[in-house]
Amino acid sequence: MTYQSSHLHNMRTKSKWLIAFVSLMGFAIYTYRYNFLSVRTTANTVQVMFGSRVTISFHKPTNMTNIGQGDLKNKPPAHVPQVKILLWSQTLRNKDETQIFPNYGKAKRSCPVKYHFVYDRKQISSISGVIVDVKAASDLPPKTRHMPWILLYDQPPLVYRMLENKTFMQEFNYSIGYRMDSDFPNPKISEPEAIQPLDFHQKYDYIAAIFSNCTKLRTDYVRELSKYSRVKSYGKCLRNVEKNNIARIGEENYIASKKRLTRLHKFTLSLMKFDCHDYVDDTLNHAWEAGSLPLFLGTESLRDMLPKYLKSSFIQISQFTNPQHLAEKIQELINNKEDYKRFMSWRTKNKNQSDTSPMWRIWRPSYSPGCQIAMAITENRSKGNVQAQKTLKPIICNQRDTNKWLGKNQKITKVTDD
Fold this sequence. Notes:
The protein is α/β, with parallel strands linked by helices. Helices cover 27% and strands 16% of the residues. The termini are far apart.
């Protein structure tokens, strides 16, 4: 084929495409003008309709949003992110997720992000984020721009003073702690088992006191309460019972033996070591599950933390001006079986009702705590420098006021114990 004929052929081909294009555009303009062609968009599709019979749908691409917020609005992408989290700790090495977060319930949903914990510090160059145990604060890991630091603590700043330090706390982007305002709350109390307690008349009309950490307030309060009510002290502090049949703290059967003894008493002192906001230890669980009524001394926020069915499952000592005032309430309950039983009624209440309390969200989580951490890391990968977005604020907790609990400004009259 000569150049002239080839050129003529190309011109004819282009003319055909031009005529077809102009015709198509003319048809589109005509049909659209007279409502023969229409376009409709929905949340997930684009629909092109020719008349009333022919419809062509085009699906919009989906993407993942709200990672780390507990729920996913859309389906996760085909490529599932991989998240490797380093646990920087000496005491928690080779612990699995359930041991790091022992009081979480079973997650309702499977995690949309693949993640796993590692413990080998040599892998730090390939990880997505690092959890730093506050106990390892003297040996912090090297820092990189896109690797978030997550602080893990289980005790108040009265134990770990660096939690009060602004410079130290600003090194971290997220927190895992006993406080409910932590990014990933990790409280010390678990959902109590509703074990059937002994009958009212089978229990001693005594208050059980079982503790061996003899802080000033604990010993002073038990000593003062013993003047107005019958207290059996089985631990090392103010012990007044020779044989207690309790294993030593740290032994395998310690908690079980403690519950067996507590079960025999109508009341049990649950005295926290600190009054720090949201701080509650597992001694509250021991009393609940033994079927004894806890007398709780500690944070004022406990009732707000708990789900509805547990809000009347304990006596808050802070509601009483002094130990004598508390002793009067205890005697009222000893004399009134029905009033006492109301504190035990949580065992038969409906626990499947919807609840928005902090502890309910932990005992009935949408995603496991490790998954929540992994989703938060994944979400922030696309936002650049995580450290520039958020740092932690210092945690403050004042020393407890012993005079407040003992009601030193109140006139107390000793009563005779029969």
